[in-house]
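Sequence, please.
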C-alpha cells in the first residue's frame, strides 16, 4: 500500500511538473504573439508607400519578424504549426518587400489568430481591473517617460531614443489591443528604453494596461459608446466578453461597426467593463469556439486534433462553469455534460454525421446556459451552491476518515489516531496550496484536474475494496476479538499506520481539490458573505454528522460494527470507482460509450458503459469476497 501511495504522489508531482512546463509553453506563445502584434502595429511608422521612413524602426521590424519566424518554428509539435510558420513567413516577406502597412497589419492579425487557435492561452484577466489602481501605477511607473497624461512628454522623454510612445495617439491606439499593452508591460521591448515589469503582480500589470488603454479616449466618446451599447445589438455581438474586449482592436471592430462607433464602444467598455457579460458567459463563448474548431478538424480528417479540441471545449470552456450553472439549473448542466459525452463518443467512432448532430444540440444548450448565466447569481443561489458543494464533496471523505477513527477506537489503538489526523490535516493544507498554485502560479488545466481526481478516486476505491473485504472476513469468521488481541497491534505498528495516513490524505485531498475549484468559480459572482455563510453552514453540518457517526459506532457491538463498516466501505469503493473512471473519461484518458442509464452522482453512476462496467466489476469482487468469507466462516461447523 505504501508503494501505491508513493506512485500516486509521484503521479501528482508529474502533473504539477507538467503544469510548470505548460506555463513555459504559454510564455513562449505569449512572447510570439507580442512580436507579431508589435510588427503589425508599428510597421506603419517605418514604411510608407513602399519607402522607408525610419531606418531604425524598419531595422526593428526586420529583426522582430525574423525572431517571430524562428520562435514559431520552435513551438511544440502541433498539426497546425506548419500553417502557422507559413503565416509568419508571409508576414516576414511583406516586411522585407516593404508592403503597404494595411497588408502587414492584416497578415499580423491572421498569424496571431492562427497562433491562439493552435496554442490556446489565457488572453484576459479573471475580472476587469480597477482603473484607479492602474492610474496610481501609471503615475508611479510610467509618467516620467510617457508623460502624466500619456502624451509621451515625460521629463525623461527628451533623452530617450527611440522616444516613448504617446498613448493619446489615436491612430496607434486604434491598432493596439489591451492584451498587447499587457504583454509589453510584462515583457518590455528589446532595443528600446521600455523595461519588463515582471516583478509587478499579474493583476497590477492588467490594471496598468487597462488604464493606458483609456488615455486616448474622452468623456464624450464614452457617453456615445454607452448609448450605442444599449441600443445596437451589433456592438454587443462584436464584444461578448472580457476576452474579446482584451484582444480586439478598434481597427478590427470598425469592419463591422464602422470606425466612429468602434472607437466609442471601446472607449465605453474599457472604462466600464461591468457592462459585459460575466465570465461565465465567456466560458460558454470559449466552449462554442472550441466545438466549432473541433468539428472543422474532424471534417479535415484530423481525428486527434478534433478530439483534443472537443475535450478543451468541455474542460477549459464549460467545466469551470458547472458549479454556478448547477446551482441555478442543474438539469441543464447535466444535459450539457451528457451531450458533450455523446459528441466525443461520435468523434471516437468516426461518425461525423452524429458528431455534427450532437454539436448542433450542444449549441442550443450553450445558448440556454449563456442566458442562464447572464444575470449573475443572487446571494441565495451562491449560499445554496456553496453549501451543496461542500456537503456533496465532504461527505465521502468524512465517511472514510470517520470510519478509520471509529475502527481504531474500537481496536483500542488511539496511538495510531495521530497518523489519520495528520493525513486529513495535510490534505487540507495541500488543498490550500493547490488553490494558491492554481490561482497565482500555474493555471491547472482541465485535463490535469480530471486526471488528479480520477487517479485519486481509483486509488481510494482499490484501498477501500481491500479494507472492506478484510473487515467482512473478521466479522463473518467471528475471529475479530482474537485478531485484535494477537495480530492488530504488531500489524499497525509496522506498516498500516502510515497506510492509514495515506488513505486519509487521498480521501480528503481529492474532495478538497474539487471543492476549491468549485468555490473559486462561485466567487466570481461576488456575494462573498453568502459564500462564506454556505461554507460555515456546511462545516457545521459535517461536524454534526461526524459526532452522530462516532457516537453511533461507539455504542455498536464490535462484530456488528465490522459488518456494517465493511458494507459501507465496499459501497464507497463502488462509488469512487465510477467517479474515477468518469474523471479519466473527461480528461480523455479513457473512451466513453454512452448508454441509457440514470445519472446519480451521489452513487458515482454516470451513463456510460465504461463507468458502469468499472462499478459492476468492483461490486462483483466485493460480493464474491463477502460470499467467500461467509462460506469460510461456516466451514468449520460443517
Amino acid at each position: 500500500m505504501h508503494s501505491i501511495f508513493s506512485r500516486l504522489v509521484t503521479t501528482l508531482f508529474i502533473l504539477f511538473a507538467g503544469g510548470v512546463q505548460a506555463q513555459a509553453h504559454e510564455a513562449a506563445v505569449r512572447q510570439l504573439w507580442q512580436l507579431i502584434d508589435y510588427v503589425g502595429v508599428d510597421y506603419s511608422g517605418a514604411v510608407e508607400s513602399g519607402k522607408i521612413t525610419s531606418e531604425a524602426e524598419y531595422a526593428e521590424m526586420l529583426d522582430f519578424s525574423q525572431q517571430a519566424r524562428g520562435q514559431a518554428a520552435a513551438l511544440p509539435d502541433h498539426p497546425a504549426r506548419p500553417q502557422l510558420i507559413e503565416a509568419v513567413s508571409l508576414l516576414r516577406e511583406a516586411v522585407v518587400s516593404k508592403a503597404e502597412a494595411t497588408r502587414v497589419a492584416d497578415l499580423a492579425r491572421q498569424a496571431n489568430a492562427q497562433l491562439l487557435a493552435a496554442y490556446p492561452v489565457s488572453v484576459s484577466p479573471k475580472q476587469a481591473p480597477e482603473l484607479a489602481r492602474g492610474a496610481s501605477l501609471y503615475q508611479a511607473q510610467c509618467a516620467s517617460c510617457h508623460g502624466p497624461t500619456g502624451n509621451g512628454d515625460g521629463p525623461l522623454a527628451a533623452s530617450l531614443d527611440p522616444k516613448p510612445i504617446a498613448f493619446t495617439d489615436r491612430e496607434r491606439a486604434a491598432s493596439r489591443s489591451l492584451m498587447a499593452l499587457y504583454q509589453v508591460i510584462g515583457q518590455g521591448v528589446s532595443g528600446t528604453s521600455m523595461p519588463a515589469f515582471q516583478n509587478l503582480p499579474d493583476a497590477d500589470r492588467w490594471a496598468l494596461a487597462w488604464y493606458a488603454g483609456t488615455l486616448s479616449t474622452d468623456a464624450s466618446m464614452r457617453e456615445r459608446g454607452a448609448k450605442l451599447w444599449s441600443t445596437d445589438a451589433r456592438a454587443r455581438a462584436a464584444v461578448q466578453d472580457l476576452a474579446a474586449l482584451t484582444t480586439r482592436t478598434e481597427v478590427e471592430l470598425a469592419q463591422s461597426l464602422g470606425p466612429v462607433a468602434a472607437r466609442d464602444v471601446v472607449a465605453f467598455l474599457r472604462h466600464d467593463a461591468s457592462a459585459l457579460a460575466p465570465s461565465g458567459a465567456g466560458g460558454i463563448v470559449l466552449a462554442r469556439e472550441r466545438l466549432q474548431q473541433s468539428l472543422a478538424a474532424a471534417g479535415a480528417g484530423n481525428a486527434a486534433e478534433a478530439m483534443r479540441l472537443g475535450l478543451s471545449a468541455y474542460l477549459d470552456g464549460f467545466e469551470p462553469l458547472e458549479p454556478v450553472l448547477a446551482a441555478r439549473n442543474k438539469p441543464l448542466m447535466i444535459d450539457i455534460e451528457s451531450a458533450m459525452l455523446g459528441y466525443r463518443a461520435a468523434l471516437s467512432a468516426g461518425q461525423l454525421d452524429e458528431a455534427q448532430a450532437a454539436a448542433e444540440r450542444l449549441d442550443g444548450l450553450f445558448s440556454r446556459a449563456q442566458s442562464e448565466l447572464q444575470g449573475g447569481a443572487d446571494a441565495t443561489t451562491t449560499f445554496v451552491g456553496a453549501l451543496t458543494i461542500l456537503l456533496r464533496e465532504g461527505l465521502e471523505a468524512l465517511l472514510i476518515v470517520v470510519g478509520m477513527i471509529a475502527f481504531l477506537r474500537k481496536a483500542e489503538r488511539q496511538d495510531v489516531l495521530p497518523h489519520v489526523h495528520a493525513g486529513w490535516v495535510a490534505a487540507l493544507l495541500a488543498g490550500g496550496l493547490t488553490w494558491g498554485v492554481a490561482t497565482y502560479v500555474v493555471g491547472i488545466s482541465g485535463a490535469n484536474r480530471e486526471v488528479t481526481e480520477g487517479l485519486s478516486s481509483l486509488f481510494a476505491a482499490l484501498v477501500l475494496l481491500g479494507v472492506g473485504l478484510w473487515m467482512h472476513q473478521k466479522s463473518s469468521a467471528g475471529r475479530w476479538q482474537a485478531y485484535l488481541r494477537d495480530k492488530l497491534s504488531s500489524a499497525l505498528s509496522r506498516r498500516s499506520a502510515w497506510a492509514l495516513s495515506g488513505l486519509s490524505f487521498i480521501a480528503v485531498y481529492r474532495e478538497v481539490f474539487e471543492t476549491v475549484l468549485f468555490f473559486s468559480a462561485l466567487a466570481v459572482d461576488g456575494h462573498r458573505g453568502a459564500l462564506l455563510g454556505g461554507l460555515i453552514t456546511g462545516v457545521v453540518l459535517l461536524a454534526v454528522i461526524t459526532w452522530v457517526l462516532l457516537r453511533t459506532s461507539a455504542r455498536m457491538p464490535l462484530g456488528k460494527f465490522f459488518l456494517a463498516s465493511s458494507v459501507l466501505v465496499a459501497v464507497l469503493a463502488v462509488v469512487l470507482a465510477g467517479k474515477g473512471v468518469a474523471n479519466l473519461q473527461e480528461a480523455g484518458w479513457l473512451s466513453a460509450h454512452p448508454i441509457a442509464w440514470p445519472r446519480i452522482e451521489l452513487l458515482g453512476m454516470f451513463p456510460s458503459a465504461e463507468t458502469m462496467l468499472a462499478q459492476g466489476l468492483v461490486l462483483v469482487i466485493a460480493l464474491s469476497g463477502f460470499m467467500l468469507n461467509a462460506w469460510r466462516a461456516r466451514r468449520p461447523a460443517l
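The beta strands are 47-48, 51-52.
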